[in-house]
Design brief:
The complex is a heterotrimer of chains A (about 325), B (about 425) and C (about 350).
Chain A (H helix, E strand, L loop, with lengths): L19 H12 L9 E3 L12 E5 L21 H19 L3 E4 L2 H11 L4 E2 L18 E5 L8 H8 L7 E5 L4 H13 L6 E4 L5 H10 L2 E3 L10 H8 L4 E4 L15 E4 L3 H13 L1 H17 L4 H8 L2
Parallel strand pairs in A: 1-2, 2-3, 3-4, 5-6, 5-8, 6-7, 8-9, 9-10
Helix pairs in contact in A: 4-5, 4-8, 7-9
Chain B lengths: L1 E6 L6 H15 L3 E6 L17 E3 L3 H9 L3 E6 L3 H11 L5 E4 L5 H8 L3 H23 L5 H5 L6 H5 L4 E4 L5 H7 L4 E3 L23 E6 L8 H9 L2 H6 E6 L4 H14 L2 E6 L3 H10 L2 E4 L10 H8 L3 E5 L2 H4 L7 E3 L4 H14 L1 H18 L2 H34 L4 H6 L8 H5 L1
Parallel strand pairs in B: 1-2, 1-4, 2-3, 4-5, 5-6, 6-7, 8-9, 8-11, 9-10, 11-12, 12-13
Helix pairs in contact in B: 1-17, 3-4, 9-11, 9-15, 13-16
Chain C lengths: L1 E8 L6 H15 L3 E8 L8 H10 L7 E6 L10 E7 L6 H4 L9 H20 L2 E4 L2 H11 L4 E2 L18 E5 L8 H7 L8 E5 L5 H13 L6 E4 L5 H9 L3 E3 L10 H8 L3 E5 L15 E4 L3 H13 L1 H18 L3 H9 L1
The chains are: A alpha/beta (about 325), B alpha/beta (about 425), C alpha/beta (about 350).
Chain lengths: ~325, ~425, ~350
């Protein structure tokens, strides 16, 4: 997109590690990356923000999370001892210093912005990342099918939708599309079979091409996206919005709630099968409302300024 | 926190005594403390201070290793005495940790360490002080005046502190050399001491008692200035008349004869007790009106006998140098080293004539010292410093990694790293 | 296997090494491997920042990689348990260019320290590599002379040999590739007045800068050769470039002291074209053999003119030289599948 606007752009990918022992070694290495021939440097993932440049811009998408918001979680993978507390505290101090060098600090969501504020005391501007070539998405019709196009992983909770289908009162259909873990897909298939839902649910556990995705979204009744406590609004909900479709999500989906407002551009319901089933029925029964909410999804993109034009304007401000 | 402390434990070690107080305090605060005795094999059978903990000896390798592997923090109590601190030196190089630095001069420690590692020792000397100083050091190591000859040019502080991930010391006067050699956090923490419950010690001297008791405690070396004190007394009839001077501490015969001869010739009342037990020392402090803690030159990070005198609520006279300069001006009287005798005479006269001054000085000194030189504060600061070391550790390891890399590639030690200001972003974290 | 190609990058600069890395990746994938190119930023100015960038590379930890193929300094300093070097460049400023006074490293202790660091780090990397290949005789000799390491020569293949199928010889001699004073396209134009009227010239390729383009245009104008010289000075689509080669009577390539055979000569040989080069062109002469695959002239206008005229005087002989060039090139047996096989052996 920067190139489309006439800028010269180089993407620099460098190795990244998560091991506490090598963390600082890598951070130090990034200090020595010489990108002085660029006018602007935009940094996304850690430790890219350690790069030195007179005009460094952060579009911060996450911390080294095991030392931040995931410290008190099963993901930490090392003991909560003095050594690792020391690494954590030093990381925060070094992050603070490196972040402090940036000319502008953007984040990809309110969730990440709040974390930056909480852990680093840094104010940032939320700059929602748009999707690639959003104009591809369009609305053709509202058929009987709610689609969930996303990687199949437990924390994306496709299983919750299948369970919800047992509680629906209408002939509403469900399509789950995306590649993912073998075991989880097997589990989903078992759920469908047990629920006797084979005739109303299509499970496509494979890689879905962009063209297929565009088609599915153009025709569907609505899109579901119910990850557990996601950082950002997520591309599936964004793509559905570009296709002018309502988005079904849950109250615990995290960043998705920055995009979806209950009853406006979709439904936000409790993460339980009965509530989700009810929402599926409502979409099926009231097409006029579904259409209306789909329109609101498009409008919501405008409201939140989710566009490459805005992104470039802000990044290069 | 799981803390392993290397320290001499035998009763003869004042550092051991302090560490004993501190480790009891650490245990009380809920920390798991392991003591590794650092004294030479020949001392390991000696009775230790009452740590109330199981003690491991530094040469019990596997036991030490197993304790180290679970440690959050490793602390080394180091003073200028190789036979007491040998175990610290054996482990510090392989298992870097927080060094509690009791002396800013470590020439004797280094000399002891260097006995069986001559080439390595020469390299260390040259690296820190250059070739000329290194050869002077080696030449002086057999001289009686070894300390005087080397304390300014090559105190070996850097050698020790470069191995430390952090340093706690007990006064600030010698800290520049610590800063230039230790990249980790550095803390100045008052030495820990037993607080005496000793209201009775304060100068409740009967008004009618005529003699003023002046006391000096410690190994009688020239730097304790006993001869100067005798001379100062001798220059004043008042002092000669009223002061009775008491020296307590181990002393060599020739020094004893020399001092007794000097005092006798000048008509100064002198009593020398030599080394005494704790009870006798207690009594000596109790009897004293004034304690003279002069030092020149001064090499220690803190003086136990001065702290003890303060805790006893005595009027204390010190040399205005090093650790002693940092004591509050309203708690001690300070003698400029370049005007020692006449200034000392004036000060002693003032104290002799003014019982109120002696008393108020002693009270202030006791109040201040009993709040300052506590094991509780020291223990808290060990914990604070250990946390700071844990923060500094990843950064020091990283810098160490690059330093080794550059030196393997044949780069100079200073040259390359110093030219890399980009790493300063980590500086805040490593320095505190 | 997961194979990581490690190369340098100078932001906003794209050249032969970058192309080679991309084609290597493409061909590794075609051979059934997973492959990515890691491009590590490197700026050799100012020289004082070279050590930090060396440390930077050394500090990177590669996970999830089975093999590394590294191409340039300092990229090849990267640590990996199975590292193969395909050496396109050492840092010549610390070696032969320093010796001839063409280095950005300062003379004196500071420069000596830099050279010592580079040499030691290089030696360490060469030592820990499983195998070292060089892209030319010259690179190999340099490595042996300065670092005492033996390498095997592995010439980079042509990336798209299918484009150079050959064709009927046309009425022009083609000179392709980058246009600059070291490649000496101007010599060819200056030779034209000494050559037969029948000799025509097509010079096409991207000039390094505007001055290089202007110089050629001026020579054409000064010698009034507009009717015999066609200049197409730009970055050519590959198809266009291949059409120029395939339609040529012969291909001339006269760089000064080139390290390698040169893509221009390799592609011309693939297309079965007779070659013209000069006695001081270095590695190119591996493919251009006088009166065998073409002509090797001394680098002056009259001598070159003689060779250029000969191309058109005896068309059958020229055709024969072209065929011989193709055979010689085939004899080298350089292809991507074989190259990949060698690199992974």
């Amino acid at each position: 997109m920067l190139e489309a606007e006439g800028h010269q752009v180089e993407l620099v990918y460098l190795p990244q590690v998560d091991s506490p022992e090598l963390l600082f070694q890598h951070m130090a290495a990034y200090r020595w990356v010489d990108l002085s021939s660029a006018d602007r440097v935009i940094c996304f993932r850690p430790p890219a923000h350690f790069i030195t440049h007179p005009h460094k811009i952060l579009w911060f998408i996450h911390h080294v999370r095991v030392f931040y918001d995931l410290w008190d979680s099963e993901y930490r993978g090392f003991p909560d001892d003095l050594k690792h507390q020391g690494i954590r505290d030093s990381l925060v101090a070094a992050d603070n210093a490196a972040i402090g060098e940036a000319r502008h600090i953007f984040t990809n969501s309110n969730v990440v912005a709040a974390r930056l504020k909480h852990f680093n005391g840094v104010d940032s501007e939320v700059l929602y990342p748009p999707i690639f070539a959003p104009e591809r998405f369009h609305c053709r019709q509202f058929n009987d099918e709610v689609v969930y196009i996303c990687r199949m992983e437990h924390h994306k909770r496709q299983h919750l939708l299948i369970q919800a289908m047992r509680h629906t009162q209408t002939p509403v259909r469900l399509r789950l599309s995306g590649s993912g873990g073998e075991a989880y897909a097997k589990y989903l298939r078992k759920l469908i079979k047990e629920g006797g839902l084979g005739h109303r649910i299509v499970l496509e556990d494979r890689w879905i091409s962009e063209a297929e995705k565009v088609d599915r979204l153009a025709d569907c009744l609505g899109a579901a996206y119910l990850p557990l406590d996601e950082d950002s609004y997520g591309y599936p909900s964004l793509e559905a919005s570009h296709a002018g479709k309502p988005v079904l999500t849950t109250t615990d989906s995290g960043g998705v709630l920055e995009l979806v407002e209950d009853g406006i551009n979709g439904f936000v319901v409790e993460p339980d099968p009965i509530a989700i089933g009810g929402a599926l029925d409502r979409l099926y029964l009231d097409r006029a409302r579904a259409t209306e909410m789909g329109q609101a999804s498009l409008a919501r993109l405008q409201d939140l300024n989710i566009s490459w034009k805005h992104v470039l304007q802000r990044l290069l401000a | 926190m799981n803390i392993v402390i290397f320290t001499p434990a035998l009763k003869a070690s004042a550092i051991g005594r302090m560490t004993c107080l501190v480790s009891r305090e650490l245990s009380r605060a809920g920390h798991l403390v392991t003591i590794v005795r650092s004294e030479d094999e020949v001392f390991l059978a000696r009775e230790p201070h009452p740590f109330g903990l199981e003690l491991i000896a530094w040469n019990e390798r596997s036991a030490v290793e197993s304790r180290l592997s679970g440690a959050d923090a490793v602390v080394y109590q180091v003073g200028d005495n190789y036979s007491f601190h040998r175990g610290c030196m054996e482990w510090l190089q392989h298992c870097p940790g927080l060094v509690c630095l009791h002396d800013f001069y470590l020439g004797n420690l280094f000399n002891g360490w260097a006995q069986n590692r001559r080439p390595e020792a020469i390299e260390v000397l040259q690296q820190w002080y250059g070739e000329a100083v290194a050869s002077n050091f080696l030449a002086a190591s057999s001289h009686a005046s070894f300390v005087e000859e080397t304390c300014r040019s090559s105190p070996m502080t850097e050698w020790l502190c470069a191995m430390a991930t952090g340093v706690i010391t007990h006064s600030a006067w010698g800290i520049e050399r610590v800063k230039t050699s230790c990249a980790g956090p550095i803390y100045v923490v008052p030495l820990a001491y037993d607080a005496f419950d000793s209201a009775s010690d304060i100068g409740h001297k009967k008004e009618e008692e005529y003699d003023i008791h002046l006391l000096t405690v410690g190994n009688v070396n020239p730097n304790k200035r006993a001869a100067s004190i005798i001379q100062a007394i001798a220059t004043s009839d008042l002092l000669k008349n009223r002061i009775s001077y008491h020296i307590v501490g181990s002393i060599q015969d020739e020094v004893l004869h020399e001092l007794e001869g000097l005092a006798g010739g000048l008509g100064v009342k002198l009593r020398v007790s030599g080394e005494v037990n704790d009870a006798a020392l207690e009594q000596a402090f109790g009897n004293a009106d004034i304690v003279c803690c002069l030092r020149w030159p001064s090499l220690e990070a803190a003086s136990a006998s001065t702290i003890e005198a303060l805790l006893h609520g005595k009027a204390v006279v010190v040399t205005d140098t090093g650790f002693y300069s940092e004591l509050p001006d309203d708690c001690v009287l300070k003698i400029p080293p370049d005007d020692e005798i006449s200034s000392l005479r004036a000060t002693l006269e003032q104290l002799t004539l003014d019982a109120n001054l002696r008393q108020s000085l002693g009270e202030r000194g006791r109040d201040w010292s009993s709040k300052t030189f506590t094991a509780k504060i020291y223990a808290e600061q060990v914990v604070v410093a250990s946390r700071a070391v844990a923060r500094a550790r990843p950064i020091l390891d990283t810098i160490g990694y690059f330093r080794r890399l550059i030196s393997m590639w044949g780069g100079s030690r200073a040259g390359v790293m110093e030219s890399l200001p980009a790493l300063q972003v980590f500086e805040t974290a490593s320095r505190k | 296997m997961k194979i990581l190609i490690v190369n340098n990058m100078a932001p906003f600069v794209w050249g032969g090494a970058e192309e080679l890395a991309v084609h290597l990746q493409r061909n590794l994938i075609a051979a059934g491997h997973e492959s990515e190119v890691l491009r590590i930023p490197f700026q050799w100015e100012p020289a004082s920042r070279i050590p930090s960038q060396m440390m930077m590379v050394r500090a990177f930890e590669l996970v999830n990689v089975d093999r590394v193929i590294a191409l340039k300094f300092p990229a090849y300093l990267i640590r990996h348990h199975h590292k193969t070097l395909w050496l396109l460049h050492q840092f010549r400023q610390a070696y032969d260019l320093y010796d001839v006074g063409k280095s950005n490293l300062p003379r004196g202790p500071e420069g000596d320290e830099l050279r010592r660091l580079i040499r030691n780090a290089d030696n360490e990397s060469f030592q820990e590599s499983k195998k070292i290949f060089c892209n030319s005789e010259v690179t190999k000799a340099r490595l042996e002379k300065y670092n005492g390491f033996n390498a095997q020569i592995l010439l980079p293949p042509i990336n798209d040999p299918e484009l150079f199928s050959g064709g009927e010889p046309g009425d022009y001699i083609f000179a392709g590739g980058r246009v600059n004073s070291m490649k000496r396209q101007h010599l060819l134009i200056e030779a034209l007045p000494y050559a037969d009227r029948a000799v025509k010239l097509l010079i096409a390729g991207p000039p390094d800068d505007q001055a290089d383009a202007t110089r050629l245009q001026e020579v054409v104008e000064r010698l009034d050769l507009a009717d015999r010289v066609k200049l197409d000075l730009r970055f050519l689509p590959r198809e266009t470039y291949a059409r120029y080669v395939n339609g040529a009577a012969a291909v001339a390539y006269l760089p000064f002291d080139e390290d390698s055979l040169g893509y221009v000569a390799m592609e011309a040989a693939t297309a079965g074209k007779a070659l013209i080069s000069t006695t001081d062109s270095g590695g190119v002469l591996g493919l251009v053999r006088n009166f065998e695959t073409g002509f090797v002239a001394s680098p002056d206008a009259p001598a070159l003119a003689q060779s250029m005229s000969s191309i058109f005087r005896d068309v059958e002989r020229t055709r024969g030289y072209g065929e011989a060039a193709r055979q010689l090139w085939r004899h080298f047996a350089i292809s991507w599948p074989r190259t990949i096989e060698t690199l992974l052996q």
